[in-house]
Design brief:
Layout lengths: L5 H25 L7 H35 L9 H24 L7 H7 L4 H8 L15 H9 L3 H14 L4 H6 L4
Length: 186
């Protein structure tokens, strides 16, 4: 059986990313009435990120588990960074979107910051905390957002790569976080 290429795997993972973004948006907008309570708002943001990680991390974990078996039977060489490499390919559209955001901040491209936030729905609340929306600053226009906040928000584009890479390593090492949380060691 022929092995899938890294690009095909990255496209599959990007499909999971889209699903994770939609779930993150759903969580973020479901609790919009709690925006006045700073602690609860932050907790909801973290919950959206954890939901995203649960949805998108499964592919990396499974690939790591499969590669562990292939390495044991000499069908593949060991590469613990394979998850990060595929995750980087998965992040290319997000990186391009972040470059476009930086160009929009420089007023080379039109303002699309609200759309950018929606396309990164799994991080919507985290982005709002970084850019000052949480403090009551109107951030519909990029001119009101600092360059530091834009760079910070743009760096979040690498989050899927980190999730994929870490989950690949966990799968390769045969570590299941859920088992560690649910069952105590005697």
């Amino acid at each position: 059986m022929q092995e899938k290429s890294n690009i095909i795997i990255a496209l599959n993972w990007f499909g999971s990313h889209i699903l994770g973004v939609l779930v993150g948006l759903l969580i973020s907008f479901s609790f919009v009435t709690f925006m006045d309570n700073k602690v609860l708002y932050t907790v909801i943001g973290i919950l959206a990120v954890f939901a995203y990680m649960a949805i998108t991390g499964a592919g990396g974990w499974k690939l790591g588990q499969d590669d562990l078996n292939k390495v044991k039977f000499n069908r593949r060489s060991e590469d613990l960074f394979r998850g990060f490499k595929i995750g980087f390919i998965e992040c290319i559209p997000l990186i391009l979107l972040s470059i476009a955001l930086i160009l929009a901040k420089a007023e080379i491209l039109p303002n699309f910051y609200v759309v950018y936030k929606l396309l990164n729905g799994h991080m919507l609340i985290i982005i709002n905390i970084i850019d000052g929306t949480f403090k009551g600053i109107s951030t519909a226009y990029l001119t009101q957002v600092s360059w530091g906040a834009i760079i910070g928000v743009s760096l979040l584009s690498f989050f899927p790569m980190i999730v994929s890479g870490v989950n690949y390593i966990l799968g390769y090492k045969d570590i299941m976080i859920m088992d560690k949380l649910m069952y105590k060691k005697k």
